[in-house]
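Entry:
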Amino acid sequence: MKIPLKAKRILEKMAAIETMERGKLCRMTGRPHYNLQSWHDGRNRVRYVPLDQAASVQRAIDGYREYRRLAEEYAEILIDLTRKQREKEFAQPAKPRKHQEKKKKSTPRGSPPGP
């Protein structure tokens, strides 16, 4: 299967992302830091992020979100290509349908069926 140019450009954009971080940055009221919350191994993990590092961490979080968005877009392109390829590969000529009428018994209602 030949990878389309659009998909290759998506991969280039993904490779250009230099920093990534999972999670959400939350400002802690009255504290000199942020909390970085993320899920890992089924548990919520929290790490402290000093104020001077918050902007850098937020850029990394944005990088990860962009990476995920691009990965989803790339997957959609390949899934579509895979389905089209499978349709071509397994295409079967259309068979004409035969309409068969069922024979109805011609016994009047209420009378017992014949022998």
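Residues 54-89 form the longest helix (36 residues).
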